[in-house]
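Deliverable D2.4 — example input (structure tokens):
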């Protein structure tokens, strides 16, 4: 059998699997998923797992049944030889492919800050989020928790921590003048007011210069911290960054308009590792995954690929402030929503994804 191998079961890889049923595949093809875990994880909800307001089980979705699983950690991808090197059960294994979709996601980017990697907690993977949850849960009353980075992940995490642990002293650090700079000013002001009302300190214009075991340093000023959670940027996975192909300044792979690597028409990149006109997100990875499926079907039929591809249009972004309030944009960023309506909308989107995603 020939193989379509999908490395990484994130949102982009999941969309490819969902939209390629067995009837869509050539008779001599099978789909193989390479992942460390036997289920798809809802990364957009990792903040709630870390805060202890959602359980591990609630943020899992089963992979499609028509896909064969190959468990292991990807160590290397050889595009020329069409081979993937895996670490499985403490040994190296190789897997050949005919078509490849690389969706290995992202890791934390520490921007060269000394001690950040060693002394901070993460919500970038299920394993790391579980460790963060355990550390936060074990903190004694009145401990100090610092969240570095006030983008969507940092804001949702800080808010959920406040709802989960009213006894904690929570600080949210960000380099900018205002939090959530990617959102309209109205939403940034709304979220800032929520944090002020709920006693979460926002430290604007911050510059974290160092992190130690019990403190972080803002402009070299020592601030005690019993736990520091890093949400101040991401970068493509090590394996993606190690590929000898053209990349942008953020080490994301520059692709053709058909989402494959130039010179390698059988190797696609989806999600955080792809250089795209929008910031990485679950929604963007899904939209891209849909187009990759369209291209694969045309390739298998031997038909001409389109001269242009549809624009990757996003519907908007929703964020939560605990379980009762939220914020976000809809209709392609044109409409702003806040409060309970925004939270209900986000809950509805999550429910639809979990139970009506075509698995």
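Example output (designed residues):
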């Amino acid at each position: 059998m020939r193989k379509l191998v999908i490395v990484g079961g994130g949102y982009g890889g999941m969309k490819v699997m969902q939209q390629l049923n067995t009837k869509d595949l050539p008779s001599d093809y099978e789909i193989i998923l390479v992942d460390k875990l036997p289920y798809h994880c809802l990364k957009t909800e990792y903040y709630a797992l870390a805060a202890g307001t959602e359980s591990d089980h609630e943020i899992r979705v089963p992979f499609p049944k028509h896909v064969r699983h190959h468990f292991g950690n990807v160590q290397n991808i050889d595009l020329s030889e069409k081979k993937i090197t895996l670490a499985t059960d403490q040994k190296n294994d190789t897997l050949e492919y005919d078509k490849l979709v690389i969706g290995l996601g992202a890791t934390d980017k520490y921007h060269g800050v000394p001690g950040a990697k060693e002394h901070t907690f993460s919500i970038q993977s299920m394993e790391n989020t579980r460790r963060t949850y355990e550390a936060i849960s074990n903190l004694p009353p009145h401990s100090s928790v610092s969240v570095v980075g006030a983008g969507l992940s940092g804001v949702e995490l800080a808010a959920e921590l406040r709802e989960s642990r009213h006894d904690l002293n929570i600080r949210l650090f960000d380099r900018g003048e205002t939090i959530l700079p990617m959102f309209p000013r109205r939403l940034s002001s709304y979220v800032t007011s929520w944090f002020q009302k709920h006693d979460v300190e926002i430290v604007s214009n911050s510059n974290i210069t160092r992190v130690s075991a019990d403190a972080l340093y803002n402009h070299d000023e020592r601030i005690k911290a019993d736990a520091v959670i890093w949400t101040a940027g991401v970068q493509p996975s090590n394996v993606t960054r190690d590929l000898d192909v053209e990349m942008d300044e953020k080490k994301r792979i520059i692709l053709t308009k058909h989402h494959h690597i130039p010179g390698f028409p059988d190797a696609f990149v989806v999600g955080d590792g792809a250089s795209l006109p929008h910031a990485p997100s679950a929604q963007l990875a899904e939209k891209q995954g849909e187009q990759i499926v369209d291209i694969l079907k045309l390739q298998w039929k031997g038909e001409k690929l389109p001269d242009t591809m549809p624009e990757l249009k996003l519907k908007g972004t929703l964020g939560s402030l605990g379980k009762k309030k939220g914020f976000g944009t809809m209709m392609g960023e044109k409409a702003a929503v806040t409060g309970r309506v925004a939270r209900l909308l986000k809950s509805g989107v999550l429910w639809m994804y979990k139970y009506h995603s075509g698995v």
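The two ends are 23 Å apart (CA to CA).
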